[in-house]
Every structure is written in C-alpha cells, then in structure tokens.
Amino acid sequence: MMTSGGNDRPTWLRIMENSAIAEARARAFLIDRFWILERSVDVDGADYLIQRRLTDRNFLDPEPPRLGVVQVKYAQDGNTTHYIPKSYVCAASGIPFGEFFVLVCMGRGDGEVMHFVTARDIAAHFTTVIDTGT
Question: What pairs with residue 90 in β-bridges?
Fold first, then answer.
C-alpha cells in the first residue's frame, strides 16, 4: 500500500478525499455566481456545466445562452501536476475555447485558495506535452 508525505492513509484514499473536497468547494463557489446544470456523466472535462443567470433568454431561442464547462482540480501544493487534454482547451485550429475553465482548489481550513483559469490562460501560460502513453 503506497502512502506519501508521512501520511498513514493510502494514496488512492487521499486522491478520493481531495477530489471530494475540490468538487464541494467548486460547487459552493459556482452556485453563488452561476446556475449549475446537472448531467449524468462527466465527458470532455465537464465536471460542471454553468450558465450565466440570464432570464431573458432560453435554450429554444435562435441564439440560446452559451454554457461554460468547468473542470475541477485539487492541488495538494505548488508541486502538484495536472494534465488536461488539449482538445478540452482548444479547437482543432488551436484557438482556445471561450467557455472552458479550470477551477483549481488548494489548501485546507483557513488556507483555502481557488484559482479560476480560462482556456485562453491555459493556452498562453502552460506547457503542452506529448502523451506518450507511458
């Protein structure tokens, strides 16, 4: 059983706990600012679908409101690495999607921090790596 950082809990358990913490924090942050739309599966990096609180437009309009896609990550510290498929962030043309965001939660207790990062920020400031499958 693998453990890390002097912690007596197995790695898989810490990952599950961190994921639950991040999703709960993200939901609390988002629900205060957007309408959150539920969906039964997480595909294309969408942990949450969000909609601006618009009451003058609906999904049956010729130009329906746009939805935002939010992927949630938990970073244990500044050395945590996360990988996000480029297809979530940019169109095939390389142009970042205006509706894709990553919400990174860090810290615990009074040290909680969240970073709301746009696809444009990711494309401009983060490194692209080739997935070698290993």
Answer: 96
Q: Is residue 1 part of a domain?
A: no
Q: 126: Cβ–Cβ under 8 A, 6 or more apart, which residues?
A: none
Number of structural domains the chain divides into: 1
Q: CATH code at 39?
A: 3.40.1350
Q: Note whether 118 and 130 are within 8 A (CB).
A: no
pLDDT < 70 regions, the chain: 1-7, 133-134
Q: Rounded distance, CA 89 to CA 69, Å?
A: 10
CA distance linking residue 18 with residue 107, whole number of Å: 10
The encoded tokens of residue 24 equal 């709960």
Does residue 60 form part of some domain? yes
Domain carrying residue 80: 11-125
Given a contact cutoff of 8 angstroms between Cβ atoms, the answer to whether 91 and 123 are in contact is no
Rounded CA-CA distance 72/116 in Å is 9
- How crowded is residue 10: how many other Cβ atoms within 10 Å of its Cβ? 13
Whether pTM > 0.85 for this model: the answer is no
Q: Is residue 5 part of a domain?
A: no
